[in-house]
Amino acid sequence: MRTLRDRIRHTLLFEVIALGVGVVGGSWILGRPVEIIGALSLMFSGLAMGWNMLFNWLFDLWDQKYRGSAKRGFVIRAAHASLFELGMVIPGIFLVAWWLSISYWQAFIIDIGFSALFLFYAYGFNWAYDHVFPVPKEA
Q1: In this predicted model, what pLDDT tens digit does every residue of 48-84 receive, in sequence order?
Q2: 74-100 and 34-66 helices, crossing angle to 10°
């Protein structure tokens, strides 16, 4: 199982890369100023970091209990990324609607679009992270 220090490194790396992509891409796609999307991205980052720490801890507990030391293949990684993004959608809708002063429907569409993008990002990031920083073997 990963240590708290490793989880913090994982979360910070994930968010720093996501912020770079989210601010530039979000500003371009939504046609909003970088500082508006940057502030929104920072709020999302805070939300995501808290959820990331909690979700990954719970997922690791589940994985260790029900799967043991089996490698995480495509299905487990896809489920991991999908469940994480699903947990971000509802608070994301309220945050986007409030910050951009748009309807909940518009916020839902924006949130789903970015969730789809980050679904692929989360899958790729976690795959790469597991290869660069493998889970330590238990003694």
Answers
A1: 888 888 898 888 888 887 777 677 778 888 888 888 8
A2: 150
Q: Is the dihedral of CA 42, 47, 50, 51 positive or negative?
A: negative
The maximal CA–CA distance of the chain, rounded, in angstroms, is: 53
Contact 49, 11 (CB under 8 A): yes
Q: Give the pTM.
A: 0.67
∠ CA 92-104-108 to the nearest 5 degrees?
55
Structure tokens at 97: 């609607």
Token pair for 108: 């839902």
Q: Which two tokens stand for residue 136?
A: 């330590």
Rg (CA), the chain: 16
> How many residues in total does the chain contain?
139
